[in-house]
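Our example copied in:
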Amino acid sequence: MGVPADERLMAALEKDEAYRVERVLASSEAGSTEIVSRTGAGHAGEGPLVRKRIKRGVANAEVFSHLQSVGDVHLPRVVETYDLPDQLVVVREYVYGASLAACVAEAGRMGETTAARTVADVCDAVAALHERGIVHRDVSPKNVILSPRGAVLIDLGIARTYVEGAQRDTTRLGTWGFASPEQYGFAQTDGRSDVYSVGCLLGYMLTGVTPDDEGYAAALADPMVVRPELRRIVEKACRFEPSDRYQSARALREAVLSVVPGAALASAADVSGGKAERHEKVPRQLVKPAQMREAFLSAGAGPRLLAGALVVLGLLVGLLFAYSAFYTGNAMMGNHPVESALLILGVGAYLVLLAMEELPAALLGAGPYAAMRFKRGFSRVGLLVKRTLMGLGALAVLCVLLSLVVAMTPAG
C-alpha cells in the first residue's frame, strides 16, 4: 500500500523547511534557484547547496531520478528531490567556480587548449546523460561552471528523457543562440541536439562572440581568430540536419582532441575558475608588426586616429621616464639613486608597452585581440578602460614607492 498523499506532502514540507535560504540566485514564473544550507540534527554546517524549484509543467521528475545514479565528475551531485504542490524541488551540491559566460565576458575569447579541454569535459557530462536517455537541452555558457575539478555542466531544469516515436518536444525551451533547431518545433530533441549546443559553445569560446551576435559568423570564418580545422568542427556540430552532425558527444570530443591534442594532457586545474585560469585567458604574447599593420589598415578612421595618438603618447611617456631615470641622483632620491632609477625605468617600460602595444592592439583587434573586431562597442570600451586603470594603478604604485624611498633617507 502506498503512502497517503497528505503524508507525502507533510514529509516534503519538513524537508523543505530544513533548509535555510542564504541567497536567491534567480526567480521567475517557471521557478527559482537558491543557495541554501541545511539545519537540524545531523546536518550542522552542511552547505552550501543549491535548491531549484521547478514548475510542474516544465519539470521532468524522471530525469532527476536517473541523475541521482550518475557519478560523473562533470555533473553536480544531486542530494535529494521532493514534490511540493505545483513544484518539483531538486537539491544539489554547490559547484565552486565561475560560469563560462562570466569568464569570457571578463577576459575575452579562450585559447585553443583551454576551449578544447572545456568542450571535452562538457562532452563527458552530456555523454553520461545520454547513456541514461537524458537530453540536457540547455548547454550554454551560463550553465557551464569552470571549477577546480574541470568544467561542470549544471541546471537540468528543462532536461527531458527521449521518447521513442515522438515527433517533437512538448515544450520549446532553451537559450537563444545555443539551442538546436529541434527545440523550436522542427523535431524531437535527442543527443544530437546537445551536440549542436556544444558546437555553439566551442565557437563561442574560440571567438568570444555569442552565436546570435551579428559578428559571430565573421569571427568564426577569420583564420586569425579560429583555426580552420576547429572552424570545420564547429560547423559540422552545428548543422541544421541532426543526421549531418556528429552523432554523439563522444565523437565530437574525439574530433576536438584530435585537432588540439595538447588539451587531452591538460589537468583539471588548467580549466578551473581560479586565478590561474583567469590569467591564462588574458592574451600574453606581443602583437607581431605584420598583425598590427593589417589590423590598422582594415580599421576605420576613428580607431586608426586613436591608435596613432596612443603610440605618440607612449613615445612621450618613454622619453619622460627615461629623462627622469637619467637625472635621478642624491639630491632627488637621497641614498637610493640606483634603486629609484630602476623603479622609474621599470614602470616607464610597462606604461610604454601598454600605450604603444596593448591598448592599440585591443582597439584595432590585432593579434590575440582579433576577436574584438567582431564584438559590440561597449566590450571594447570596457577592455580599454580596464587596461587604462591598470596603467594608472602602476603610476600610483610608483608614487607610493618613491615616497617610501624618500622617507627612508636620513635627513641632513
User: Anything to note?
Assistant: Residues 49 and 93 are 5 Å apart (CA to CA). The longest helix spans residues 377-408. The radius of gyration is 27 Å. The longest strand covers residues 19-28.
